[in-house]
Amino acid sequence: MTMDLLNNWLSQLEKINTINDLNNFKSSILGKSGIINNEMKKISTMSDDEKKEFGKNINQLKQTIEQAISNKRAQINATYIENILKQDKIDVTLPCVNSSIGNRHIISTYISRIKDHYTKRGFTVIEGNEVDTDFFNFDALNIPAHHPARQESDTFYIDGYPDTLLRTQTSTAQIHAMLDIGVPIRMISMGKVYRSDNLDITHSPMFHQIECLVVDSNPISIRNMKSEIQKMLAFIFDTNIQNIAMRLRPSYFPFTEPGVEVDCKYKKLDDKIVLSREGDKWMEIAGAGMVHPNVFSACKLPTNLFGFAFGMGLERLIMLKHGINDIRILCEH
Ligand code: PHE
To answer: Who contacts 62 (Cβ-Cβ below 8 Å, separation ≥6)?
Structure first.
């Protein structure tokens, strides 16, 4: 009886080609009131020997059909993806029907606004390389080989090139600038960074950072840094510098000494965050600090220079400002 039953199921399974039908089929056999459970009820009327034999058979039957169902599921999914890929084929050589349709992505809009603004203020604005070496992403930023951030679990390395990676932070551009431009430097680096996080409501394996670096042989202090952060936030959040209440909390970044975390006062207006002196709560907004002397020496510069750097996640700022509560919206649209 088991062989007949199994063959019958397998031939039904062969005809199934949607996940919905597969789920119905599965519950008709393996569900609470499915065939297998009904068969199991017979066991109470059997002798011990019969029970043994029956139990063995039914378990085998169950395992075989479970395996067959899961193979079928994989096959349906693979066909589904194959079809989507076929349908989604885009002929990039076709002429544009109406080039006025559509808008610039909000992230690109911010990037070009920030670029314009800082270029006018005399800063060098660079996007830098997304693929870089561990020297620029880690060593030169005073992140030694044993640092947890260097582990593969956080960083995407390029197959076959053990010292090449997708940058995890725009701070790589600090090193390029110090080596290529020399001192003094007033720069903004902006662009994509990559970390092997799963995509969820607040994380994305790719996001954008914006970072500022100022280096000079004349004294630069934390007060200069604070004022520059205030200016950037006022620009991004479209408000006056006087409206931004900021506090610095001691923190640690290998490439800064001292390092701080920057909090701002805010209030909520219809889910949107407004940075405001009148706010009653603080929110962490950026990482910052004075450039660590080891970073200067890695860039072959004198260690008695003065410099500060700060960096923040662009998506997060945009989400706060516009009341967007799921980062995936920004990568899917
Ligand atoms: N690169 C740091 C990060 O990704 C941010 C940062 C930049 C902190 C510059 C301090 C100075 O978290």
So the answer is: 30, 36
Cα 135 from Cα 138, distance rounded (Å): 6
Domain spans of the chain? 3-87, 106-332
Q: How confident is the model at residue 197 (pLDDT cuts 50, 70, 90)?
A: confident
Are β-strands 256-269 and 246-251 bridged in parallel, bridged antiparallel, or unpaired? antiparallel
How close is the Cα of 145 to the center of ligand 1, in Å? 18
DSSP notation for 44-103: GGS-HHHHHHHHHHHHHHHHHHHHHHHHHHHHHHHHHHHHHHHHT---TTSPPS-TTSS-
Q: What is the pLDDT of residues 279-325, one digit of tens each?
A: 999 999 999 999 999 999 999 999 999 999 999 999 999 999 999 98
Q: What is the CATH number of domain 106-332?
A: 3.30.930.10
Q: Is any atom of ligand 1 closer than 6 Å to the C-beta of 253?
A: yes
Read off φ and ψ for residue 200, nearest 5 degrees. -145, -165
